[in-house]
Amino acid sequence: MENKSKDINWRGVDLNLLVAFSALMETRSVTKAATKLSIGQSAMSHNLSRLRLLLNDPLFERQGHQMIATQRAIELSSTIENILNLVMTQVLRPDDFNSQHYQGTFRIGLTDYAELLFAPALFDAISRLAPKCQLSFCNVDRHNYINSFNDNNLDVVIGSMTDLPKELESQYLYTEDHVCLFDQSATGLTVPVSLARYIITPQALVSPDGKLASPIDNQLQEQGFKRHIALGSSNFLTIRHLLKDRNLLCVVSRLMAKIDIFNDNLTQCKPPVDIPDFHINMLWLRRNSTHQRMEWLRQIVSETVTERVASLRGKSEAR
């Protein structure tokens, strides 16, 4: 089938010409149409000339004080009104996002930490407000999260990423600190844990990259000390299960220590070493900042994470 679109002078197609046509159909007067559009009469006359050339038809012919539409103009009138209405409602002023009717997929990138803490709460909140949607959680880390936005078409990412590239925007969610987590009976440790006991107690390390060392070891080395890393795992759940009934200690984030999927009665306390806090942020592509579906999702994620953090911290204070 022959493609005739290549024969069209697309450079001559101007949305303003359709607006001018609509005004002329309504007023049947170059002067009144110009007034309606707040432009000069000569500019309106120029628009009419361009329309006639583009559509190869006189469109409007003067009879006395009125412009009479040709048959071609009458036939085009409803089509052009539909085009202008579509541009107005779907392009320039899209309808507000209706979560109750949305049947698409929300894709959220989560670090292991964020998924363990927030996946159930996010599922509950989003599926309640958007019952027809699908929800996809994608595991990300500080090394792959940038590529994951495009490779997995992510809407948002939650994690402790810093030094963001210019194509990403972020929103601060909360600040997390650390605690020592251990089985008091198996380790013989008492609270507070002294630096001496901390160093001689075998330790487990949550290590996403597989390294059996962290900045804590550098700090200890500067003070002339060295701890024994007995185990490393990228999965916090593995380490959490291992701590029960074993002579192991692990430094973890405070909220991870408080999640309520365990009933292991492990003890937690402030570490005897200085460990910097870290910030949890929500990230998204800058180019999608004003999309209504994205704005809705970011609001729900922010509210849900804030409520979940408050709930976990409330349990901590109640104990």
Automatic annotation (TrEMBL):
UniProt keywords, alphabetically: DNA-binding, Transcription, Transcription regulation
HTH lysR-type domain segment(s): 13-70
Transmembrane segments: none
Source organism, top-level taxon: Bacteria
Gene Ontology MF: a single term: DNA binding
Keyword DNA-binding: yes
Gene3D superfamilies linked: Periplasmic binding protein-like II, Winged helix-like DNA-binding domain superfamily/Winged helix DNA-binding domain
Family: Belongs to the LysR transcriptional regulatory family.
Record-given protein name: LysR family transcriptional regulator
The organism's taxonomic lineage, starting at the top: Bacteria, Pseudomonadati, Pseudomonadota, Gammaproteobacteria, Vibrionales
